[in-house]
Design goal:
about 45% helix; three-stranded parallel β-sheet; 9 helices; mainly alpha
């Protein structure tokens, strides 16, 4: 994951939800729908908007993402962690519901600050599916983006560790992909509002199957770095 994992939290998700929900409430295409169907995941809701509403929503997304790029700060110990993984030949990818220009900005800052090469592959909400429908790849919590990464790497999901700050998106996606590790980052031990609106859509189903349960909880990337270093020491 990128926002809240590789970079410090800088997106105001509450503001994003409020602004998109206002557009949904004023969109003639959705007027006949009950309120609960005009709420939920903002990216999924966007797909049902009229063309006029989509233009307004895109302007909201662009505004929030532009500000987030301007305020972008890399997470502490990210450079050390990347160098540790690279030195051990461990592949690393980035999977985000953000856009590619935000990923590019993160990559540039990571190189300029720590001389760290890019994550590969970088899968964003703009990444296209490989099927014949020419549709965007479904976003987390769908397991498809993780499985795409596994396909590119030539490995099984059981060999992959997913690290993210969202139970609803990152941990559930990792569970559905059957990842070998599911690491939840609670930045400084706090629960951060990182919900794009879809966090409670399948709560019952997720809890029933244990999909929301991480295999490890960390409060900073230094703890993850230490875990890899200790694992390497034990292996030797």
């Amino acid at each position: 994951d990128m926002d809240g994992t590789l970079i410090q939290p800088c997106i105001d998700f509450a503001d994003m939800r409020n602004r998109i929900y206002k557009i949904a409430d004023s969109d003639p295409a959705l007027q006949s729908l009950p309120l609960e169907l005009r709420r939920g995941d903002v990216l999924e809701l966007y797909k049902s908007f009229s063309d006029v509403a989509k233009t307004k929503a895109k302007a909201v997304f662009d505004d929030i993402e532009t500000k987030a790029i301007q305020d972008m700060t890399l997470m502490e110990h990210l450079g050390e962690l990347c160098h540790c993984l690279d030195g051990r030949g461990i592949q690393r990818a980035v999977l985000t519901r953000n856009v590619l220009r935000s990923v590019d900005a993160m990559h540039k800052k990571l190189w300029d600050t720590h001389a760290v090469k890019e994550f590969y592959p970088a899968v964003s909400r703009e990444t296209m599916s490989l099927d014949e429908k020419e549709r965007p790849l479904p976003s987390k919590p769908s397991p498809e983006p993780i499985l795409r990464i596994c396909n590119i790497w030539g490995c099984s999901p059981e060999q992959v560790i997913m690290v993210g700050d969202s139970v609803a998106d990152d941990i559930v996606a990792a569970s559905r992909a059957n990842c070998g590790g599911k690491v939840l980052l609670m930045y400084n031990g706090k629960a951060i509002d990182n919900d794009a609106g879809g966090g409670n859509v399948e709560t019952g189903k997720e809890q029933h199957h244990g999909e929301r349960e991480p295999s490890m909880v960390i409060y900073n990337l230094a703890q993850l770095l230490e875990a890899f270093q200790n694992e390497s020491t034990v292996s030797q």
